[in-house]
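Ticket #4471: structure output looks truncated?

Reporter: J.K.
Steps to reproduce: submitted the chain below (224 residues) through the standard prediction queue, then opened the result file.
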Amino acid sequence: MSDAFYRTLLVLGRPAFWTSSRPTVLNAAATARPGAFILAANHTSPYDVPILMLHCRRRIDFVSITEVFRNRFTAWLYGNMNAFPLERSRPDSPAVRTILDRLSRGRVIGMFPEAGFRVGEASVIHSRKIRSGIGRIAVLADVPIIPCVIIGSERYSRFASWLPLRRTKYAVAFGEMIAPNATAEEIEARLIDAFVALHAQLQAVPTVRKPVDSSSVVKAKRPL
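Returned output as attached by the reporter:
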């Protein structure tokens, strides 16, 4: 693991986002809590990852997919920023052991429980569907989950969004922690409810526009 590399990426990437965007961020202080927790977010584009890195008060060890690590450069990049692979098509004991090990060290694990990019009606916000497993991990590790909803990150798929004009709007809302004091299924149901509530909270903010239509978004082939 390399926390120094992670910090370097933040230093290099922060100006590009700062000069191009006007983000709305709610309750980022929730992520400053000490100790281990799972940060669970919806997932609409690859830009969710740097946005979470920018606004979470803790460093995040992201869980990625094995396909990403088949590319040498991407594997090097993600590995050095503390990400690690998870095989989605089968129970992946090595990855689960890695998650539990990182959490036992007091680190923050970033997970996208939708298991890929989900936009429009396919998003958890509308479908209320996630891949099972995150609740079980929370129970096994005895750590809370902090839910997060991101709106508008897909706008960075357009070149013009990177211009230093501070016109690109996106929004991030962090929720209150979900304690691991119930069954895995109950925890996941609470997480889905939190996603829906956070999305509604963001939509109620006057400065937050609705995200761009999913049909106009250039979708990446390999989600984190």
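Triage note (M.O.): checked the attachment and the full token line is present. The two ends are 18 Å apart (CA to CA).
Status: closed, working as intended.
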